[in-house]
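Example 3.2
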Amino acid sequence: MQLNNKSEFITSHKFKKIKEPTDEEFNLFRELVLKDLGLEWGEDKKYLLYARVQRILQTNQLENFQSYYDYIEQSENKKELQDLYNAVTTTKSGFFREKQHFKFLRENVFPEMKKYKNNRYSKLRFWSAGCSSGEETYTLAMEAHDFFGTAMISNGGLRILGSDVNTGVLELATNGSYSEEQIITIPDSLKKKFFIPTPVGGKNPQRKINREVQKIIQFRQFNLMAEDYPIATKFQLIFCRNLLYYLHPDKREYLLKKLVDHLETGGWLVLGITETGYKVEGMKKLAFSIYQKN
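Structure, written as tokens:
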């Protein structure tokens, strides 16, 4: 320690520089994320591994990626593996991202749900799979609340599940606070209706989703590559956007089957706009990578 002229303690410790993973070390992690997360990594992902994980090695005073791999394998604490998942998963999200999907919901999907709300769609259940920091999930909730109104949504009429394997982004999603820059794509009418008006915080003030929206959402952590999902219901609408792209073809096929299995007959599956050309058994394609279960 050294003391500065303001009588504050400053740490002089510096992290030891970590070498980039060797080909052998990279292959260990490539096989691990394929097995656990379904991710398909090419050689270009070696630097991604290094950039995102080196701080974990430094914090735990590990010499190289081999020692980190051994550390994970030998640890009885699942936190070590979870830290790796959090580091290597892609977490890009945004409100009203790929807005064509939400236009299609308002013009086609929601009207059909409302038409049959007294029988087939008396209770609406939506799922945002791979929800990241919650922007997609909250967009769904705001759009549905605005369309159907409080009367239909109250008393359990609408419930939305947001799930992700990354616990770090789920904390952000559960908190439901976003900067002015993050919410710039939300229409002003929805901001006024569903966000607490006064920003909180100092240099980077944030706006918080109001309780009316938060109470219809549950965020949960689980792995889409798991054999059994901790879900006891089927859904009328599932969003799983911009995730399949990162998966090995076999894992992609596995996930699509699981998603279709968790859809009610007549339910809708929404993939990313660029996620085209995938064969989805038991579904008919409508538009913008949107499918409906036969």
